[in-house]
Amino acid sequence: MQKKWWHDKVAYQIYPKSFCDTNGDGIGDLRGIISKLDYLKELGVDIIWLSPIYKSPFVDQGYDISDYYVIAEEFGTMEEFDELLAEAKKRDMYLIMDLVVNHCSDKHEWFQKALADPDGPYADYFYFRKGKNGNPPSNYRSYFGGNCWEPVPGSDKYYFHMFAKEQPDLNWENPKLREEIYRMINWWLDKGLAGFRIDAIINIKKDLAFPDMEPDGDDGLASCWRMVENVEGVDELLEDLKNHTFAKKDAFTVGEVFNIGVEDLPDFIGENGHFSTIFDFSAHMLSDGEHGWYDAPPISFDAWKKAITDSQMRVQNVGFEANIIENHDEPRGVSRFLPDYAQNADGAKMLGTVSVLLRGIPFIYQGQEIGMTNCHRNDISEYDDISTKDQYQVAIDAGCTKEEALACCYENSRDNARTPMQWSADENGGFSTHAPWLAVNPNYKEINVSEQEGRADSVLSYYKELITLRKSPEYEETFVYGNVEPVYEDTDTVFGFMRMGKENRQKILVAANYGKEAVSLPLPGTAKKLLLSNAGRRKLADADHITLESLETAVVLLKA
Ligand code: GLC
Ligand code: CA
After folding, report:
1. 492 vs 550: CA distance, rounded Å
2. Is 100 close to ligand 1, i.e. is its CB under 6 Å away?
3. How far apart are CA 383 and CA 468, in angstroms?
4. Is 376 exposed, middle or buried (0-12, 13-18, 19+ CB in 10 A)?
5. Which residue's alpha carbon is at the smallest distance from atom 2 of ligand 1?
6. Is the whole-model pTM more than 0.70?
7. Which is deepest, 30, 281, 404, 465, by most CB within 10 Å?
8. In ligand 1, which atom is closest to the CA atom of 64?
9. CB neighbour class for 101 (10 Å; exposed up to 12, middle 13-18, buried from 19)
10. Rounded Cα distance, 149 and 107, in Å
11. Is 256 assigned a catalytic role?
């Protein structure tokens, strides 16, 4: 396997709106990010992914871009962006941005021109289609609810949107559109960006016949996702994109890609794949409800362990996936993947160990490194997220009480991860001197950076040790390139795997006990050295057994 500059890197996702506010308007900003670069460096971060910072009406929090060449004034200026880039570089850190090109904002100039002339050239930057017998062209339900087709005012046409109606889908079949997108991407790469996280990219290929599908809900609509699943030909578009942009710059790209078959993995992340890597969402998809959040199944420990293990086995001979516990679309991992008794610092460390030491590129989401949790709200009006509002209504329409509908938002809402970063026990968690755009999680008084900094047994200190271990010259080769072999697969409460060095023959065991009771485990060899423990354990040399207490995690070097 050819080595790439990004193979050994650790990435961190910043959600700029909620990271750090320096001008007291309750909204995080670029200056805030600059002010925290040293914090990230000390944590061990190499690559920073910024969720969108482009000009936007923020209907979907910046994932609706109205100008790809302009920084949203809420966040700052292009000069500040350049400063951020330079300051990151000074610290040997790489910056990647979010690339949102399946759709743009309805306020984008292209769409405004298309609306002004629904038969003109800009209409062909989008999907403008005539309706059928007074109905929309097809019966697809958008991801955020409602029909994917929205009438074009003053015309007999509709335009297509898979997300909100303020996010019209771009027509990738149009070479002019592609050219505009490539020019924009290259413009950012030329500035010195290291690459992109690529949003909803699998959706760019449409079935141009837009066939009706069997309805899967009482609204008579069928999830638009099924059209994407059924259509062929996305590979050609993705190759075209890569060859005109990223490939020329050796850029790092991570695709937001759900649910591709094992047979397609080489095309996506093989040596000459469409992307450097894609996120592993296999554990997250376990809680996909059939109809929405209200019927989302809980995630069992067994299913979770199996999903991750299977995914590791599938990928390791092909390429690298990016491992996440949470992101800006997912609830907090501590609240989601841990049983009640484990939703504490020990549990957060355990989860972190598994994620960071798996094979792949670890992505840490802001606040994960201090164990931030989901956030209770008392009323739907306290939520901001467009998808949460939709899912709340879906739950109510399905017969849930207000309490039940709120409970499923607590479990699933994207706002769980979007509450302000908890820097200190000061007002608003030290995020801002002003009331934040989205209320801070009240547990900031207990869970915050300043309390954890310098406390040796904090989650934050542990994350630093964990990343240091992953990158230590003695073991890095094994953690980056070594294979994964599952162990203790049949032990009910234990998630265990070996990292097997290739040339160096190292064998490193990672074992975590998610159970309430201690378990005694035979080691798959003789211990040489304990590399990391979340339980203050100090030694293990020469042992051939280990007893893991409840929530204990150990990383053990075995004799070769
Ligand atoms: C991706 C983003 C999400 C956004 C959607 C539409 O899934 O991560 O936040 O709402 O795409 O752009
Ligand atoms: Ca601000």
Report:
1. 13
2. yes
3. 37
4. middle
5. 199
6. yes
7. 30
8. 12
9. buried
10. 17
11. yes
Q: Could you tell me if the CB of 365 is within 6 A of ligand 1?
A: no
Residues 205, 210, 214, 217: is their CA dihedral positive or negative?
A: positive
Among all ligands shown, which has an atom nearest to the Cα of 257? 1
Question: For the chain, how many helices (H) and strands (E)?
Answer: 17, 22
Ligand 1 pocket test target in 53, 60, 225, 328 with most atoms within 8 Å of CB: 60
The verdict on the CB of residue 60 being under 6 Å from ligand 1 is yes
Q: Is 267 known to be catalytic? A: no
Residue 169 in contact with ligand 1 by CB distance below 6 A: no
| The amino acid at 264 | D
CB 262 within 8 A of CB 237: no
The continuous run of DSSP H or E covering 545 comes out as strand 545-548
Give me 44's structure tokens.
């061990």
Query: Distance (Å, rounded) from C-alpha 266 to C-alpha 263?
Result: 7
Q: Are 557 and 506 contacting, i.e. CB atoms less than 8 angstroms apart?
A: yes
Q: Using the atom order of ligand 1, give the atom closest to the CA of residue 102.
A: 12
Ligand number nearest to the C-alpha of 25? 2
Categorise residue 342: left if φ over 0, alpha if ψ from -120 to 50, beta otherwise. Answer: alpha
Q: Is the CB of 329 under 6 A from ligand 1?
A: yes
Distance CA 11, CA 275 (A): 16
Q: Which of 21, 150, 256, 330 is catalytic?
A: 256
Per-residue pLDDT of the chain (560 residues; tens, 9 = 90+): 899 999 999 999 999 999 999 999 999 999 999 999 999 999 999 999 999 999 999 999 999 999 999 999 999 999 999 999 999 999 999 999 999 999 999 999 999 999 999 999 999 999 999 999 999 999 999 999 999 999 999 999 999 999 999 999 999 999 999 999 999 999 999 999 999 999 999 999 999 999 999 999 989 999 999 999 999 999 999 999 999 999 999 999 999 999 899 999 999 999 999 999 999 999 999 999 999 999 999 999 999 999 999 999 999 999 999 999 999 999 999 999 999 999 999 999 999 999 999 999 999 999 999 999 999 999 999 999 999 999 999 999 999 999 999 999 999 999 999 999 999 999 999 999 999 999 999 999 999 999 999 899 999 999 999 999 999 999 999 999 999 999 999 999 999 999 999 999 999 999 999 999 999 999 999 999 999 999 998 889 999 999 999 999 999 999 99
Name the burial class of residue 122, with classes exposed (0-12), middle (13-18) and buried (19+) by CB atoms within 10 angstroms of its CB: buried
Q: Name the residue with the closest Cα to ligand 1, atom 3.
A: 329
Best mutation site among 65, 103, 199, 256 for ligand 1 pocket (most ligand atoms within 8 Å of CB) = 199
Ligand 1 proximity of 200 Cβ (cutoff 6 Å): yes
